[in-house]
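Q: What would this chain look like folded?
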Amino acid sequence: MQHFLNYINGEWRAAADGATFINRNPADRSDHIGSFPQSGSADVEAAVSAAKSAERAWKLLPAPARGDILRRAGDIFARRKTELAAIMTREMGKPVFETSGDIQEAIDTCYYSATEGRRLFGYNAPSELPNKMNLSFRMPVGICGIITAWNFPIAVPSWKIIPALVCGNTVIFKPSEESPHSANIFAEILHEAGLPAGVFNVVHGDGKAGSAMVDHPAIKLIGFTGSTETGTHIASLCGKANKKCSLEMGGKNAQIVMADADLELALEAVLWGAFGTAGQRCTATSRLILHRDIHDQFVAALKQKAAALRIGSGLSQETQMGPLINESQLAKVEKYVAIGKEEGARCVLGGERPSADELKAGCFFQPTIFCDVTPAMRIFQEEIFGPVLAVTVIDSFEEAVAVLNNSSYGLSSSIFTADVNQAFAAIRDLEAGITYINGPTIGAEAHMPFGGIKGTGNGHREGGWTVFEIFTEWKAVYVDFSGKLQRAQIDNYDD
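A: My prediction, written as structure tokens:
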């Protein structure tokens, strides 16, 4: 078993008190990937000291030069893509074709953000006074604390870390305990790309390390991806400290299929959206809203295709769906299956662990479909984060919109229809940060805004041009070359 370390000030270090935790392969819990530092406040303090020391020099490096370093990081991610995909799959389970896509998002983000280093535009505006200019500039926030979930161990951190660095911030990254090895590879790649020591730091550990980051007064921003419960708690702490906070939290995403839809396309979409990553995506399709006219035939076809999905280790090229992340998540999915049955929903497929001997050492669960689900049921309303799909029947477009919007979350949404008018009405009326027309609820692209409304987020958007709003502060500048004192408003307007 390998022993991994924190990455602080360009060096690999054990936790200050020597504590460690074990990372296991979810497809085979007897496969121990390695031990990692169980960090605490002392380790966060060391990372803050390193980030402070590096902050000014990194801030003063021109943004295009910072972008050049991150472009090189993109090249290294591309070079190591196959190797890194296998590492990611072993520690978090999803098939290698998915982890390869995870890395591609990081590559895309590096290249896109590197270019944005030349486009950190400010705005100029005419002054109301003569011989005076009004300018504005984007300034870095300072030290940014990044805390992310395990399910996208390279892509999601890259959405935050790479733009933060381009903007001139220094970063302390606490990855999930379930996918820590990927974070060390991230550090290796940034180091090789030429990032100066202290600009990027990795501190492993559980919630204690995360809390120490949130509480530290020198860390000016927290970027978080994870559960709504944890995110709202972080937001309350950041609010008390007057600290910037960007949250990307849960989802309960729905796909609508109208009677006029391309049913084969809609079928492939929900199969991928519901059971890709074993349903462990914030954008996963966990609700399916079917028009009554096509409900029975669609469910019959979906059952057939979902039952045929090949479950197994993501390291096998034959696997289409991997395991859940750990025993706790497996127990949670089983609990929600029991809740669905108790509430009167009809389990028409799956609902239990697979029986194959070769799968018993891992955290596997069958693709599961519930029918006769109503909006009042918990399996309709609550995020399960597993391969469980709740199917609801509707009779009209208006009812479909109302049913989809009946959620405390608002991340992603989808509708399949051949009616262009309904498509545009859905774009207008679906309450979500993302809407797909004739596509699944998953498939975000690096150059577009990503995030949601309601319980999904707090108003920020990662990805695209919008992420740079998170990691910069605006500075307004007034240049007066009139040679006299001019008092805005007072001198410019007479009673």
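The chain has two domains: 2-249+457-477, 253-437.
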